[in-house]
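#data-curation
PF: Archiving a pair of folding outputs for the training set. Convention for this channel: one message per protein, sequence first, structure tokens after, nothing in between. First:
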Amino acid sequence: MPDFNFSPKIIAGLIAAYIASAGVTYAITPAPSPLISPGSTVTQEEPGKSGSFLQYANEPKTEVCPLNGALYSKSEKALWERRRPILTMIENHTDARPQSGLSLADIVYEAVAEGGITRFMGVFYCGAQQDVARVAPVRSARMYFVNLAAEYNTPIFMHVGGGNCSRDEASKQCTSNKKAWAIEELAKLGWRKPQGNDFDTISDIGYPVMLRDYNRLGADKQLATEHTMVGSLPAAWKEAEKRGYAALMPAGSTWLSGFTTWKFDAESNVTGSPATNVKFDFWANYNDFTVEWKYDPASKAYLRNQGGQPQTDLDTTTQLKASAVVIQYVKEEGPLDEHKHMYYEVVGTGKGLLFQGGKGMEINWKKAKQTGKTIFTDKSGKEVVFLPGQIWIELLPSASKVTYQ
């Protein structure tokens, strides 16, 4: 690929132009993100170089994760208690698969980003304390994901740009619908500011937190630029600590003390109809995004297939799985504008389904305000109890059909 040698003045001008179009007005000087070009390699000098996904494997699993109830070692707990979660936007285009990091997330959200193509938001805290943990490919934010991220008590929010005003230079008018303005919403939340908790390569985050790796899926597979951004979780936590976004909040309380947890019980008496095979589409006739969850009694988890194939984690090589799969029916709006932005209403109330332990049941959900926690209840109004382990929350348009047996 050709080499481009931009002067600092030109780079600053390009960044300033972007901020103006996004409606965000602070000055930034991001660290450069090096490229790993096809056929080349790079050495990263940050944590993770000598570790492995097995460094805590021999330690007893005695510590309960507050996000999903899974058990981890004392070493892992000692690390997460010094930090706050990292919520990362991860794309799901067919050319971007397999992704890195999804098997390490405590919770994963999935919803359509645009054109029937879904996107993930992984919540990384307890399960991602390995010093080699990375996430990829990191992509742009959407308003509904921001609204969900807001219930995590000012987390680290990692992404590459997002829906914004998209101002037309001739008319000076925004070309996108306000419901798509994720970047402006991050500013309203107070996250998008110099040295803030909004970790966006288009603002003030660069290497070693994120870099582009054109060989992410192997030197023999050509990748478009949008499929190449890789985020380092250890480097992100290190940067967050420098910025004052570790475990302690401004008032001196811990991050966890202000976070609302769900209920978990490994001995919970799971009720409902048999549901060992769960299948659904986000949009009709988008077969590459058809999801199928198959219950595996041996692991007591649902194994994930998408587009008719097992969906795996590139780095751990394992098939993605979930102890609990939540179908959250939401109101769908869009395309909203010429950019084909979509909007899903995640604040309010609605219906859904819960699958765990090989059974399925009807549930309701409620999120009272943007920063409020989404609470799931059974038909009697009692809060559901999750089996410990990774939780997937699938945001489906209200009219979507889910089949299970």
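PF: Second:
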Amino acid sequence: MLRSYKFQLRPTVGQAQSLGEMLRDHCSLYNGALEDRKGAYKHRGVTVSYRQQSAQLKEIRAFDPERQGRWSFSSQQATLRRLDAAMAAFFRRVRNGEKPGYPRFKPVARFDTVTFPENGDGCRWDSQPGHADTRVRFQGVGHVRVNQHRPVEGVVKTISITREGGRRYVVLSCDRVPVKPLPPTGSTVGIDVGIANFLADSNGGFVENPRHAKVGADRLAAAQRRLASFPRKKAADRSRRHRAAVEKVRALHGKVRRQRLDFHHKTALDLVRAHGVIAHEDLSIANMVRAPKPKPDPENPGGFLPNGAAAKAGLNNSIYDAGWGGFISIVTAKARCPFKACAGRTMIPVDPRNTSRTCPACGHVSAENRPDQPTFACVACGYADHADSVGAINVHQRAGQAHRHATPA
């Protein structure tokens, strides 16, 4: 079975500089290959293939040994395959009548990944069981220390280096990883995601919303004001203080992203470990965060009436901060992942309409059932509970036929 591992690198100052040069030179190769394809089609009407560009690599490496000849040949081929995949996706969109989106030239600051297709070819994973000093060797860089926080199982097939802000990570893709199934639970649950509480389940449990972006908003705002005080310049022309301000904003955004991702993974794993069948709302988040339409003022041509856009913007920010879509994707991946849930976890999406307005006792649907955000009180039968819990109970009930016929975990 396949599995990926991600570890943070701990390079020295010189190694960090070399890793940056590696990304820069692969970015240059990518952009040069894209320019070659564009020029060949524009001037000669010819489509250049990956095979043709790969055959030119030897000449490119011989012509520029300082920047291209020092890196792994196979990693450069992987970069050309990356461009070839982007071009194939472009032509597919054209054939399907979609928005084409022609591949763009990548700035060095946004070219963040280099892939080595085979362990031992330009990159070697040096890890010994029980040995604390794990390193990975990159051609042209040397042996870089790795913060290996868990053991690697299986056979390492491909290795990638990726940059996220000021941090660098190594990603290992492994094959023949032993399966470790979770025990069956026989438990089913419905979940309702929200803002006041991040998650409520049909058993009456709640998970508090950590609001990572809101907690760090003041520090981020101060860092952005500091950055805005500098005149806009290209990266090469920025002063030391300007670069430090850019890095500060980037680091704060990265911290919030890591906090949110860590919270999502831990919450999702708790769900998958405890329940065999998980029902959730099939939310269309893109529609939920859509800006309200403007309301023209009939008495004032060219003017507009208040449409609640400011309040909707605040709600949208809270939805983005919670990250419902990413969380549901993580739960689904863990539920179906053979390494974490071989017993057979099942995800059931249900219709989200009126889940918090429907009485789970009598089925009465009314907006009056929910007088305020946390309260549910049925006007027909008097049933009362927390509104989020009612939503989770209705999600669980709506799983219905799919739930009854789901394979028990």
